[in-house]
Design goal:
alpha+beta, Hypothetical upf0131 protein ytfp, 5-stranded antiparallel β-sheet, two-stranded antiparallel sheet, 7 strands, globular
Length: about 180
Amino acid sequence: MSLFVFGYGSLMWRPGFEFEDKAFATVRGRHRRLCVYSWVHRGTQERPGLVMGLDRGGACRGIVYRVAEKNRDAVIDYLRAREQVTMVYLETTVTARLDDGTSVAALTYIVDRKHPQYAGALSDDATFAQVKGAVGQSGPNEDYVLSTADLLTEAGISDPRLHTLAARLRQAEAA
């Protein structure tokens, strides 16, 4: 049986695993938010960045990847190594409704609100300050935010807070 994976942040523009197909989909009851202090990929413990978490409430548009059965275990191992470095996410299965109207059970990672890296709902100014200048093993935090915002724009997905932050980061870079 195929594995389905729901991506809502960097997995949308850098999945890093082999897949057979992908489609846009919506998950209800969760929303995308910059609510995770990044201690590894986009910051450090001394200077954390912020990355996306799938948090409670609302709905989230993202991408569902269909992974061949033969690659299932390797992809799960890869995702656990990538997403569970500090165990800030809970591995779970969500129902994702694809744009063609079908629904699939998809593996994804939701934020653990009890984890010390859970940032919650930060103000726009606090979010900007946390992202600006943070760098981790995967590069600058700003690149992560801009890449996610750009993909959402290309896909016609509205995320006003993320797009406002991206514009502010670009403006600061240009100044």
